[in-house]
Amino acid sequence: MNKKKLQALINLLDDSDSFILETVEKELLKENYVIIPALEEKLKSCFNEGYQGRIENIIKNLQFKQIKKLIKDWLRTGEQNFLEGVLLVDRFQYYDLNQFEINKKIENIKNSIWIELNNSLTILEKTTILNYFLFNVHGFSINHQDIHSPQNCFLNYILDTKKGNPLSISILYTIIARLIGLSTQFVDFPRNPLIAIVDSGLARKIHGNIRSSDALFYVNTSNKGAIVSKKEIEYYMDKNNYTPSQEYIKPQTDSYLIKSHLMFLMKAYQSIGFPEKEEKIKSLYNMFK
User: Fold this and answer.
1) pLDDT tens-digit readout, 123-140
2) CA 114 to chain centre
3) Are 260 and 167 in contact, with CB atoms under 8 Å apart?
4) Which helix (H) or strand (E) holds 13?
5) Which single residue of 13, 166, 204, 250 has CA 20 to 30 Å from 211?
6) Secondary structure E strands in the chain
7) What is the reported pTM?
8) Three-class DSSP category at 147
């Protein structure tokens, strides 16, 4: 759309005719995020509340349209960058997210752990150090007082407050663990999500060629990174009649983790009575297989 036509359509958002308004909004929503700066510029100079509301609504819908496109692209690329996928969820609430600042905060956490590591450490020892720094030194924990708040789902909020829900803390754990060289996969365990520390070579040595997964052990991020063995998990499953037990401890893909994250966020918006946001998150959730 050329600049002249765009400006004319934006000006028509001040019209009192409902048919014209509906037509103009449809035309503008056919465009993509590149027209947002023009809408934002108009927003600065208008003082009519109805006019402002229409412009803001169009901006939000264009931003959401762009987020859907970016998630579609991320899924198409085979989930190559987990952090990028997580930040796309953040952008639902914070479209103009400062990714540089988030990367800086994550890098600072990683560096504080990295200086304590060396090549002679075992995977278990590295995990123990990670747990100590993340939960004791940096003080990340579950926000039990307001666990269903949507804010607990957003990485930028978690990095600022050191509080999150079980899934979002698991996401942060996954990001940091991979940065220090630990291979992790999400486990959708009943009651509390777990993070599986995986290594195919070691798993083969320990469990042989016939094994259910490459998980060496599990980390409970809801309990300050408590390390749990496979036998402990299986005992818990048998005791509570979870069958087949292997389905509950199967390591999942990154897209599965983000899909679970979106489900939690959808329920959070539902619990505080935000049906419009709940529906939008549902449409993002439905993009995942």
Assistant:
1) 999 999 999 999 999 999
2) 24
3) yes
4) none
5) 166
6) 141-142, 163-164, 184-187, 194-198, 215-220, 226-228, 251-252
7) 0.90
8) coil
d(CA 95, CA 127): 34
Give the integer Cα–Cα distance in Å for 155 and 70. 18
- How many contiguous H segments (helices) and E segments (strands) does the chain have? 14, 7
CB 130 within 8 A of CB 176: yes
Give me the mean pLDDT over the 30-41 stretch: 88
Closest by CA to 178, choosing from 86, 288, 48, 62, is 86
For residue 159, give Cα distances in angstroms to 141, 167, 172, 188: 11, 14, 9, 23
Beta strand pairing status for 184-187 and 163-164?
unpaired
The pLDDT tens digits for 192-241 are: 899 999 988 887 777 666 566 788 899 999 999 999 988 888 888 888 88
CA–CA distance, 181 with 200 (Å, rounded to integer)? 14
- Cis omega before residue 190 (within 30°)? no
SS3 163: strand
Please list, in sequence order, all residues whose beta carbon lies within 8 angstroms of the beta carbon of residue 286, skipping any fewer than 6 positions away: none
Dist CA 209 CA 234 (whole Å): 20
Residue 220: both structure tokens together: 């409970």
Residue percentage of the chain with pLDDT more than 90: 61
Residue 96 has which token pair?
Answer: 């103009």
Q: Looking at this protein, which amino acid is placed at residue 199? A: D
